[in-house]
Target: Putrescine aminotransferase
Amino acid sequence: MSVETTNKDLDKKDYTGVNEYIKKVLSMIEKDEITKEDAEWITRETVDGFREHVNPGFLDYRKSVTKDKQFAAVEWSDSGSCFKDVNGKEYIDCLGGFGIYNVGHRNPKVMKAVTDQLSRQALHSQDLLDPLRAMLAKILAEITPGDLKYSFFVNSGTESIEAALKLAKMYSDRTTFIATTRAFHGKSLGSLSATAKGVFRKPFLPMIQGFRHIPFGDIEMMRKTFGSCALVGEDVNAVILEPIQGEGGVMLPPDGYLKEVRALCDEFGALLIFDEVQTGMGRTGTMFAADGYDVVPDILCLAKAFGGGIMPAGAVVATEEVFRSLFPNPFMHTTTFGGNPLACAAAIATINVLIEEKLPERSAEVGEYLLGKLRNVAENFPEQVLEIRGKGLLIGVEFHTDEIGYEVSKGLFDNGVLVAGTLVNSKTFRIEPPLTISIEEVDKVVETFKLVLEKLNTN
Ligand SMILES: *Cc1c(COP(=O)(O)O)cnc(C)c1O
Model:
């Protein structure tokens, strides 16, 4: 009886309206060029959709929305170092999706690998052996530092951290983890335990037990923490850190710090987990930041640029000794989509582009050039700019206040340069463009930075 009623109700539901809407949206996706009318429709639908069905909060935070919400920049297409909004205005992308676009937007080689794979098989059976996963894992064993050898594939950064933490827990029964203040490792409950920002953690306490946060860069504090944990019988399982803190505002490690952390881990029999979700894939001037600091972790986490800005993809790579704990039962940690053929094709092509176009080296060179130029500009604005720091094309510009940072990032945006920096968090903004960015584009960024600061000064 009840089944019958449900079926009748279902039959009664009229999908005509929503399907008309769906067809309109599909026709927009299909278009090579959109008209002015289309652009207006898309903008209206986007702003309304965010307000009514996504989250109206976003409309208050984005610098792409004017205060009266009359104007909203809605993105529509991208290529190279740039993306365009629906009205055709072009922006140089110095935010780079927080480090997604290392090989540029829609890199042709990555596109080709993904579309070739797509035209044959998109996702894997989940039962037969999928070839690209094996090949990508072999490639990673080759290019990652030291004796990192086995890979587990995931879809995002936070998932790579989850996998790393579970791997570490499988490896030993120690329950203490050392993380650092200002760290960002993701927002799912496991990785959030390692993330340091109170505002993101507080509503979800308690986190996974056993995490201790100590100041990034303070090796004495780390030594003491290792010691006291051992004394009370709560030995450290692993230290987890970003070699260079990204979200924390591009915080570089003090000289020798990472090597000393490695030594402490060895002394106390703990693992070292490097979260290179943002610093990996050539971002900081070497394939991995670990290479640049000559330190080999036991577990390496990758995501963001790993999928070449085309596919969501990530990986956790570990030594055989550590990964071995998953050999007896590989189903102890699984994900349906992780390591799917499209993602693997994207990652393989991405690594090919990084190698053949020498993008890690390019990142080092262009990064040094950009850092120097930005510092030259900043010298004339000591009242506004506090410090500019970075390595490779991961650069942080720190202002004296949030307000100045927001004004500058908004000014840059209005002049066609996108950098991170929101209404609530702009004291330091990151500049992390595609590693393929041209020198002309870099010069335009510097020129615009100067213009915006000058204008700010005269206002
Ligand atoms: C972005 C980021 C993450 C989280 O990645 P998601 O894909 O957003 O889950 C983790 N660690 C670092 C260092 C990151 O920059």
